[in-house]
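ok so i was messing around last nite and threw this chain in just to see what happens. nothing serious, just curious
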Amino acid sequence: MPPSAQPSSPVLVTGGTGFLGSRLVARLRTAGREVTIVSRRPQPKLSKEGFRVVVGPLHDPAVCAEACRNIDTVFHVAARVGVWGKPADFQRDNVHATLALLAAAKIAGVGSFVYTSTPSVVFNGRDLAGADESLPLTTSCPSPYPLTKARAERAVLAANTDGFSTIALRPHLIWGIGDPHLVPRVLARARSGRLRIVGDGRNRVDMVHVDNAVDAHLDAERALLARRRTVNTASGARPAGCAYFITNGEPVALWEWINALLAALGEPVITKRLSLPAARRIGALCEGVWGILPLPGEPPMTRFVAEELAKDHWFSIEAARRDLGYQPRVTMAAGTAELIAWYQQEPRR
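result:
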């Protein structure tokens, strides 16, 4: 058993009831770890199962202080996600909460801080093909999510010291059985006839299976612990204070993958197209309408979504392989076959 998996090393997982967080919590429990979870609401089932649950908002310093008590590693997975919403809400939940958690972790003597970031932090409106960690963090984006995640990532990496090791992971489009966001949204829009191929349809994207994303978080913790236990050398800075793209390492043609999935599930494939300029215009119009009227949910199109659906977004994971020992275990083919079989058991999931 690796040192970081010892039961004597308690951990905190924010977002521990979400898709990625719950998978991470399950793996930690299997390894015999003591796990604390922060939740906005009581979790009686988790409490009964022996998890320590701290209830309250993460932007509350008192909640963070209680959550970090007697913790060695913080996995900060929680975030406000989405492409639309009030910038102040994203700032509160993504930036202020992260700053409060960092401060509490330092005071509590936490040794390692693993932050779940996103590749969207390097959004620049251009194709990203084989991009690596040398890209600068975005300071201009038509969505508050990437902007606030970039601010939070910057704070996490700047907080790294010899006694407090921090790292940021950037998993891209997490999917798998139980995914409540990516594939369900695609299916819902396809079934309603509202899904369109944006752009020329040849753009390639990276995704990451949820089990691979969990592996990356555990790899990051092990790497940080190894760094803490060794004497600094010329290369000893890595991986602490660094960010890493996390994907399956198998870029796919986005619309081919979507149509293959739809066909396998007996759904009509997507053939209707929308040019990127037209999608941008529609997105800007929708943003204006949603910004004026109290309409529920997210707009059907935004400028940010238009770019994401039409552009290349795939990333090098060589740094994660080298510094963290990260190796994707679940391939795109295996994960897709598993997902299709799961949906076929109850097609209207």
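not much to say yet. The first strand starts at residue 11 and ends at 14.
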